[in-house]
Amino acid sequence: MGVWDEITVKRRLSSVNLWCVVGDFNSIRCEEERVSTSGIRCSQSDMRAFNEFIENMEVEDLPIVGRRFSWYKPNCTVRSRLDRILVSREWLLAWPGSTQMIMDRCISDHCPIKLQVSNSDWGPKPFRSLDHWFHDPSFKKFVVDTWQEMSIHGWGAYVLKEKFKILKGKLREWNYNKFQDPMSSQKRIVNMLSRLDKKEEESSLTEAEWSNRVELQNQFWEVAIRNESILAQKSRVCWLKEGDMNTKFFHLMINWRRRKNELKGLYINGVWSDEPKVVKAHVKDFFQQRFQEQPQPRPALDGVRFKVLTSEQNELLIAPFTEVEIRSAVWECGSAKCPGPDGFNFRFIKEFWGTLGGDICRFMREFHNKGRLPRGTNSAFITLIPKRDDPRCLSDYRPISLVGCMYKILSKVLANRLKRVLPSVIDERQSAFIGEEFGPKRGLRQGDPLSPFLFTVVAEGLTGLMREAVSQNSFCGVKVGSQQVPISMIQYADDTMFIGEANLQNVMATKSMMRCFEMVSGLKVNFCKSKFGAMGIDSGLAEGYAHLLNCTLLSFPFTYLGIPIGANPRKKETWRPIVIKIQKKLSAWKGKVLSMAGRACLLNSVLTSLPLLFLSFFRMPASVSKEIVSLQRNFLWGCKEDQRKICWISWDRVTLPKKMGGLGVKNITRFNMALLAKWRWSLFHQNDSLWARVLYSRYGGGTNLCAQSSSRRDSIWWRDLLMVCGGLEQDNWFERKIKWRIGSGARARFWLDNWTGPICLASVFPRLFTISEQQNHFIQDMGSWTDSSWVWQLQWRRERFEWEIQLEQQLMQQLLECSPRAEQVDSWWWLGEPSGTYTVRSAYSAITSEVVVGSNNGAPNIIWSIPAPPKVKIFAWRMMSRGLPTVDNLASRSITISDNDALCVFCKQDIETDYHLFCTCSVVDKVWKVCLSWINCPTPLPRCILEHFNFIPGPIYQNVQVEYWRTVWLVTTWTVWRTRNLCRFNDNSFCFDSLVKEILVHSWRWLSSFTKTFRYTFSQWCSNPGLCLCRLGA
Fold it and tell me: What is residue 148's predicted lDDT score, i.e. its pLDDT?
């Protein structure tokens, strides 16, 4: 047993949760933690083993402050981070501000390392509107009344600003009086419940005490939901739905975010400082200098030609703002985005648009007329996001501006207008066009909706310089393919790539253009991040050119916009960074503190975020897909490296859509195909764009999306792209989902393309195709216009037989409604969407329907809309998919149980199976009869789980009644399952009356919490639940 295994075993055998492991581990976690002048690479297996040790120990590597490395070789040829402090997550919940500081060393080769807890006072916390306020019935009335009672006079912007300021103070006071400390309220309720539980152990509770306990449980539920909402909002986790009480996960995510983003201190003039006053003064000076305009004249690009707006476009930009335009801009802003200095997020603005909308529209109209903003409207918080794991100076942070809602609405409206006109003036090379205060006089704020568009306009200056350089032969670009498409520069936002011949003239021209752009725009080129690469020239000459440009030499493969350029996508090494990131995101601790519903959400969130760029560009190798699926499966079912758990339902069913009986987790291979197929679609619809012209010139074709063939000389990327559109064993799934929408008929082939239906005419009428003289003709060549009418002119190689003439008549009958339309352009139509436009979602559904054959025998889609917690819906899905660990399911997986333990815990007569436990057990059958007696329905229930679920009692007929009855059904099965587990594993005694009471309590709680129309008190529900159900919708 190795040292890692020994420590891990001790950790698991220990009952202590607060763990802190400190020392020289003699291992590193990643290559960035070691620098060697010899260039020897670190052992990947050692790093993997150390990371697995940290994962299995369920500990966290604390953020480091101070130095970057903790060990230095005496001859200074190697420096590494060998020493570290690892703490358990329970430790972080107790001391969330823990950090490890690497201090200066003396004569030792190791640096001292100190565990410290930061309690620095960085100032008062700003006001933030909280989403849980909307759950309080008095909140909306309070806001509306407060807003309408305010009487402020002045111009619109001033009135709106002052109203927000007053409302902020009122809400702060209302929140304090209404909720105070939610944690103390929760503890008080728990203490009262504990006293009732102790009393029940000695004697039975009276009806009043039992009702009091239910009321306390309801109060606890409300406080818990409120706490979960607060934690979810603070954790910034958008993919996880509330309702499953994943509070520990939210706590851990909040602490993780704080540890990652917290400014713990800075190196100021070479000295580490964590004193708040010193750090705040340094930050203010830094950004004041960065955004301060230097009083010096700038040259202008008078000799450079740019595209200009038309008069109609100019009128569009300066037209008065409309209420529809303003409202649309508000609804485009993310509801959960972090607010600015005013403290109000856009969920608040949207919820109260009826109250606030008039003042907001008045402010916008007056700004359009006068162009003035009151002081402070344009103010913003600057939040510093670390660019690296161990930030030490301000250049290691990315400043993001959090602007107030007033300015953001104005900026969003202006940005939307610019977005409509910029494509006509921006060059095709720019592909991205998809305390005391100080005012910035230069630079662009990240976080301002208008900033990306303004930067696009500024970057057009560099494009104009390149156009002039190429036209004057000062810069020689490259020409691609048979059509000699010229490329000299590619831009995506602030990432620019110059492409040209590797000679001194181009290097000098590049340097001149960048220097000129700096002088004209006031922006600076970051030469530290810039690289120079060349192919086919001497390495010494390449190094000289790089030195001339003040940048480093580029090596292949290199990363550009997150894509490894020059790497082989069919090798596992290319995908290794993605697999490692997924591994980190699907950590075992997250699976431990998340419900199964939360784990399923995280799987889709990780799949649609981390590898999305790779999946959109490269075809994933089968070995990589298998490895990622293994990570997903183990995370979903709670498996670890050394602890295998049963996967109760096949992965094929898990990855089915919910409407087909699956869990809705995306199949990564099918998702990859849907993303890649979009290239083929875009290749046709954007055929005039630069990237499409390059591909046409390099690979040819493009007339037919599916008929394009490849050669061995083509790139791996292009061959994989063509293969994907055949995809499922080369059966051309893509071709069956598209057809031509005929215009003039100049681009679609009469016989070989789909334009009359999902199958081409050559397949529908193979005999006629064989004898046709126009087999490869386009539609426009198959007839002519006569007096504004289209006449088909089909030509045959020989005289037709009688039965062939009948086929021709059938063909002509089919063509009656498919005549060309003059002066219109042929276009592809995607059959998976009503709009005819390709979407990844519809393509994924199409591929899934191609793969899945047979009827759906799993859980019905309706279970996901039942008013219930997400984890209970997952339980229902597992139950209906035969994925619960019942005795018969355990036996089918070769897990033997004694005869006595195999019996049903309720009736003690039959072997436990899922259908027996929930349907045929005599005890559970009595429970169902009690539920049916509430609505006076003595009808016997079906014996199959799916039929049992679909059975609707006679008195229930309204849609809302059916929905609420299914909630009662789900509560009953969930309570039976929980009681079964308590009896089987905790040796609890079974009480029939307690089980029925628990069903009453949970059903009322779920209906009250997860629906809006259920308004009955608990006493009303308990006295006559059937009457409450039957009155709904009546």
Answer: 92
Average pLDDT value for residue range 620-630: 92
Q: Any residues with CB less than 8 A from the CB of 923 and at least 6 apart, and which?
A: 906, 907, 990, 992
> Are the beta carbons of 233 and 250 closer than 8 angstroms?
no
Q: Is the residue at 443 inside a domain?
A: no
* pLDDT, average across residues 462-487: 91
What's the residue count for the chain?
1034
Judgement on whether residues 542 and 588 belong to the same structural domain of the protein: no
Say if CB 740 and CB 826 are below 8 A apart.
Answer: yes
Q: Is residue 449 part of a domain?
A: no
> How, if at all, do strands 531-532 and 552-553 pair?
parallel
**437 pLDDT more than 50:** no
Beta pairing class for 478-480 and 558-560: unpaired
* Segment 477-495 mean pLDDT: 88
Residues 28, 34, 38, 42, Cα dihedral to 10°: 30
Residue 701: its pLDDT value, please? Answer: 60
What is the residue type of 85? I
Q: Predicted confidence band at 237 (pLDDT cuts at 50, 70, 90)?
A: low
Are residue 255 and residue 335 in the same domain, yes or no? Answer: no
Sequence-separated (6 or more) residues with CB below 8 Å from residue 1005: 217, 218, 221
Question: Rounded distance, CA 215 to CA 1008, Å?
Answer: 13
Please list, residue by residue across 636-658, b when 16 or more beta carbons sit within 10 angstroms of its beta carbon and e when fewer do.
bbbbbeeeeeebbbebebbbbbb
The contacts of residue 250 (CB under 8 Å, 6+ apart) are 228, 231, 232, 234, 235, 237
Q: Decide: 61 and 84 in contact? Cβ < 8 Å.
A: yes
397 shares a domain with 283: yes
Q: Residue 765: which of 795, 808, 802 has the closest Cα?
A: 808
| Structure-token match 């199958």, residue found | 759
What is the spatial distance between Cα 134 and Cα 1012, in angstroms, rounded to a whole number?
13
Burial 426-441 (b: 16+ CB within 10 A, else e): bbebbbebeeeeeebe
Identify the three-state secondary structure at position 85.
Answer: strand
- Residues 547, 585: one domain? no
Q: Round to whole Å and give the CA distance between 776 and 704.
A: 12
418, 305: one domain: yes
Distance, CA of 511 to CA of 995 (rounded, Å): 79
- Kind and range of the H or E element at 201? helix 182-202
Number of neighbours of residue 964 by Cβ within 10 angstroms: 25
pLDDT digits (tens, 9 = 90+) for 689-708: 888 889 888 887 655 555 55
More confidently predicted of 1 and 33: 33
Could you tell me the pTM of the whole model? 0.80
Q: Where is the domain boundary, 74, 92, 117?
A: 117
Q: For residues 329 and 399, state if they share a domain.
A: yes
Q: Tell me, yes or no, whether 908 and 1022 share the same domain.
A: yes
Q: What is the pLDDT of residues 130-185, one digit of tens each?
A: 888 888 888 999 999 999 999 898 888 899 999 999 999 999 888 888 876 666 67
Q: Token pair for residue 946? A: 């799916």
pLDDT at 978: 93
Which domain does 821 fall in, by range?
A: 738-745+771-830
Would 707 be classed as within a structural domain? no
532 falls in which pLDDT band (50, 70, 90)? very high
Cis peptide before 557 (omega within 30 of 0): yes
Q: Within this chain, do residues 551 and 569 fall inside the same structural domain, yes or no?
A: no
Give the pLDDT score at 442.
Answer: 45
| Domains identified in the chain, total number | 7
In a domain, 725, yes or no: no
- Asked whether 327 and 333 are in contact (CB, 8 A), the reply is no
Strands (E), 590-748: 738-741
Domain-terminating residue out of 90, 117, 144? 117
In the predicted structure, residue 823 carries a pLDDT above the cut 90: no
Question: In this prediction, what percent of the chain has a pLDDT beyond 90?
Answer: 26
- Bridge partners (DSSP) listed for residue 384: 399
pLDDT at 435: 40
